[in-house]
Design brief:
The chain has helices at residues 3-14, 39-52, 61-64, 72-78, 84-107, 114-138, 157-174, 186-199, 203-215, 224-227, 272-277, 285-288, 316-326, 329-342, 353-367, 374-380, 384-388, 401-406, and strands at 236-240, 289-292, 295-298, 311-315. The protein has 416 residues and is mainly α. The protein is globular, with a radius of gyration of 21 Å.
């Protein structure tokens, strides 16, 4: 490894050692010293940062506070300004954002060839994803598109959504197909666009993008044992490969108990509510849940303490569910029943959009269990009180207490 790449590697690691949001690395290679030969290291560091910096619990936060894992006390204990999960995810998302912004500033100064175009597109996708992850948790957030040592204030959520959509449009223009679903592609951008439109209740836009992916012929609903046992499949659109040799994101150890052959710490058992949703004919059940020595465990991440598993960001089943929720009742019912049929379930026949929403939320809870969706599904559909018993102020996470102390420009979310 030459001197520049070695220095670059150190630089990419610095942010994970930083303190809170107002502290950034002060040293590292200057962007104007990076050459095209260094781009692969830069790209790998960005993937690693976005995957790992938010910490492993970030990927399942919405399951933890969405009623899928643990119990009511788990939800209330987590929604606390001093809770370690809240603190580490905030810090981790902004740490990853710093790296992504750095990649963008470097690649914008280089000639636009195939490599810089792909990396710029990937960086815009990741920035959109990070902003999405932040605003769906905390609402108004510091919207940092350029790295700065200044202490930032919070930006209204409307402007955050606008920036997310802008970044996705830019990403779509730079990206094409990828060599595998472990790399960001134009289709990954479309999948995130559909999720972003859904989150803003832009139903026609969400339906249109979801249908584009469903009907383009590249993807199909596949077997759960392929999706979650790292076999070739047609379902996944984008996932982090999460290789043991390059990753510390051991999400898998959180779910099994010590009686499983691969063992685990059994931090987050599935809730009784979610276990009761799965019927025997549901083809997802055996891969989603397993009973070990009388204890129910999540079974989607099979490596336990022995390794790591892919972290799936987008797969075609989510697009079927987005289409079901946002299309007209006829097409929506068709898409919902196509998904149910693939999972071994009988068709349903909702007569109203309210009935459809109820069915979709239940199907999302089963289909996307332990993939990071439940809490925000209820928040965005204004059903969090009904399904989770949350108070109004709990529809947002608390700003970490340490951040408020370090940055006087930040304000807490009301109620905390």
């Amino acid at each position: 490894m030459n001197k520049i790449i070695a220095t670059l590697f150190i630089y990419l690691c610095l942010c994970s050692c930083s303190k809170e949001l107002d502290l950034y690395p002060r040293t590292g290679i200057s962007p104007d010293k990076v050459t095209p030969n260094d781009l692969k290291a830069l790209e790998n560091g960005m993937y690693n940062s976005v995957q790992n910096n938010p910490t492993r619990e970030a990927w399942i936060t919405f399951d933890i506070i969405g009623g899928n894992l643990g119990n009511t006390n788990t939800i209330n204990n987590t929604l606390n300004p001093l809770n370690g999960l809240v603190v580490s995810t905030w810090k981790g998302y902004y740490s990853a954002l710093y790296q992504v912004n750095n990649v963008l500033s470097i690649t914008e100064a280089l000639p636009l060839d195939e490599n810089t175009q792909r990396i710029r597109g990937t960086a815009h996708y990741f920035r959109a994803y990070l902003f999405f992850s932040l605003t769906t948790r905390w609402g108004d957030i510091p919207l940092l598109t350029v790295n700065s040592l200044d202490k930032p204030a919070r930006t209204p959520q409307k402007q955050v959504w606008e920036q997310i959509e802008k970044d996705l449009q830019l990403a779509k223009g730079f990206l094409a197909d990828s060599k595998s679903y472990y790399y960001v592609s134009q289709d990954a951008v479309l999948a995130l666009q559909a999720r972003v439109f859904l989150s803003q209740n832009k139903k026609s836009e969400a339906s249109m993008v979801a249908e584009e992916l469903i009907t383009n012929g590249k993807y199909a609903l596949d077997n759960f044992d392929k999706i979650f046992r790292k076999q070739a499949n047609k379902e996944v659109i984008f996932a982090f490969e999460n290789l043991t040799t390059e990753s510390s994101n051991t999400i898998s150890t959180l779910f099994y108990n010590y009686g499983h052959p691969n063992k685990g710490s059994y931090v987050y058992p599935p809730s009784k509510d979610v276990i009761d949703l799965f019927t025997e004919e549901d083809k997802r059940k055996a891969i989603s849940l397993i009973n070990i020595g009388g204890q129910d465990c999540i079974n989607k991440y099979p490596s336990g303490q022995t390794g790591t598993d892919p972290v799936i960001i987008s797969r075609i089943a989510e697009l079927y569910l987005i289409s079901a929720e946002t299309s007209d009742l006829s097409l929506g019912t068709t898409r919902l029943n196509e998904l149910r049929a693939a999972r071994g379930l009988k068709p349903v026949h909702p007569a109203t959009t309210q009935e459809m929403l109820k069915l979709v939320l239940e199907e999302r809870r089963k289909e996307l269990l332990a993939e990071g969706f439940a809490y925000y599904d209820y928040v965005r559909t204004n059903t969090a009180k009904q399904y989770l018993g949350l108070l109004d102020f709990q529809h947002l996470l608390p700003i970490p207490g340490g951040e408020l102390q370090l940055n006087e420009k930040l304000t807490p979310n009301p109620g905390y």
